[in-house]
Amino acid sequence: MTIAPLLRRTTDHALDYLASLDDRLIAPTASLAELRATFVKPLPETGIPADQVIDALVNDVETGLLGSTSGRFFGWVIGGSLPAALAADWLTTIWDQNAAIYACGPAEAVVEEVCGQWLKQLLGIPASASFALVTGCQMAHATTLAAARHKLLADRGWDVETNGLAGSTPLRVLTSERRHESLIRAVKFLGIGEAAIEFVGCEADGQMRMTDLAATLQNAADTPTIVCLQAGDIHTGGFDPFPEACDIAHSHSAWVHIDGAFGLWVASSNRLRHLLSGAEQADSWVTDGHKWLNVPFDSGFAFVAHPAAHRAAMSQSASYRISVGDARDQLDWTPEWSRRGRGFPAYAAIKSLGRTGIAQLVEQCCDHAHRLVTEISTLPGTELVVTPKINQGLVRFLSPDGDHDRRTDRIIEAIQAKGIAWFGGTTWQNKRVMRVSVCNWRTTDRDVDRAIASVREVLAEIS
Ligand SMILES: *Cc1c(COP(=O)(O)O)cnc(C)c1O
User: Fold this and answer.
1) What is the structure's pLDDT at 277?
2) pLDDT of residue 367
3) Does the predicted TM-score (pTM) go above 0.85?
4) Which residues line ligand 1 (CB under 6 A)?
């Protein structure tokens, strides 16, 4: 089969899948053993025609797909794909630019420049900040914290890119129980080491306690320090007190980093923007495109208030690089060399919604999360744990025998197995809880109704 019929056929497969979203079960139905039985075959010695490969793939994955793109998927923090972003993502594959440098894909490089400018305006980040489009928040942490590592050590006369960390003043990282584990991993990647992390105490509502932050900074005042704050934590959607934290940290010459993987997007909303007050004073920010902006996966954004430090941490010369005028070469700012033209889907997403559309998407998700949590909490044997401030909230299920953790896990499992809605379990303040996260543009009032009805049914079935 030649390429044109193959792609038309693939489009039909894609449309069939999307059309099935409303009715298909969200949880996969195949077991691990069944999936292995389907896929694990000897290495093929000879090939088969492309249409047969695609038809078989579509058939074989069917029972092993998690319906995370459905409007009734409320697990982890997972967005869907906006139509414009999805279509641009297809074309990104077709154009197949190597978005490492301008010369390898001029239009894509300029689209990334535009994304950087637009994103800073949308997210309330100073226009003078540098940026990078990376794979996700994990690599955005690695990129921005490499810039922090550079600057904090350069300020003390140490060139970390040349000399490495051995022999330098040890760095210190302060964060709170709210941090996402990807932050810890970035600290490991960068050779700073997990042992350099100190946890600052929190208030009852989970906000970093400012008296503790000040005391901890005072404690080793000469140590180069990165303070990592949270804009939207994964359990409660909570925000650290940025104006105070930035003042305290900066008075100790510390670097302030904000993880706003999804929370930074409230900057688009007049109703919610106040939660980010003071965040513009930070030294670095990270967020995702593939969560709340609803760009397909492989979309994260890194921003640094000190462009020279950012560039020094990432840039690498190569004899075969071609520089064109004042074009922005992405590899001066990103940790990758060859890379996908991930500017196109992000650009398409922003262009299709505009600032008001993004604000509406954010507010609509928050409203859905609020309804899910408050209405589920009115069902018998259910307890409201955290009312969503934004799009994340917690509930749990109470057992007459007092083992609420066990019952909560059982109910979550049964909801997942029913396949109508999908919520995940987690541990918060030593309790098992069910987390409600709404990040998908596709979720409607009807999805929320169906999800609540499904929880009600499960509760009636499992006494
Ligand atoms: C998802 C998430 C991350 C990790 O981002 P990836 O895009 O998965 O790399 C980091 N921090 C927070 C708060 C998150 O929700």
Assistant:
1) 97
2) 98
3) yes
4) 77, 136-138, 180, 182, 234, 259, 261-262, 288, 300
Report the separation in Å between the CA atom of 356 and the middle of ligand 1, taken as the mean of its atom positions.
24
The torsion angles phi and psi of 172, rounded to 5 degrees, stand at: -130, 145
Ligand 1 centroid to residue 350 C-alpha, Å: 20
For atom 14 of ligand 1, the residue with the nearest CA is: 261
Let me know whether 285 and 159 are in one domain.
Answer: yes
Of 273, 318, 266, nearest in space to 287 by CA: 266
Give me the amino acid identity at 387: T
Separation of CA 348 and ligand 1 centre (Å): 22
**CA-proximal residue: ligand 1, atom 13 (nearest):** 261
Q: What angle do CA 129, 316, 142 make, to 5 degrees?
A: 55
Tell me how far the alpha carbon of residue 138 lies from the centroid of ligand 1, in angstroms: 6
Residue-level pLDDT at 453: 98
Q: Which of 327, 350, 373 is the last residue of a domain?
A: 350
pLDDT of 64 > 80? The answer is yes
Q: Assess if residue 73 is contained within a domain.
A: no
- pLDDT beyond 90 at 299: yes
303 assigned to some structural domain: yes
H and E: helices and strands count for the chain: 14, 11
CA pair distance 60, 54, nearest whole angstrom = 10
C-alpha of residue 233 to centroid of ligand 1, in Å: 10
CATH number, residue 257:
3.40.640.10
* Nearest protein Cα to ligand 1, atom 5: 137
Predicted confidence at residue 281, as pLDDT, reads 98
**Which residues are CB-neighbours of 14 under 8 A, at least 6 positions away?**
none
Which domain, by its residues, includes 49?
3-68
Q: What is the pLDDT of residues 269-283, one digit of tens each?
A: 999 999 999 999 999
Nearest ligand 1 atom to alpha carbon 139 = 9
Closest-lying ligand 1 atom to the alpha carbon of residue 141? 10
* In a shared domain, residues 243 and 384: no
Total domains, the chain? 3
CA 80, CA 440: separation in Å to the nearest integer?
Answer: 5
pLDDT at site 205 = 85
Can you tell me which atom of ligand 1 is nearest the CA of 136? Answer: 7
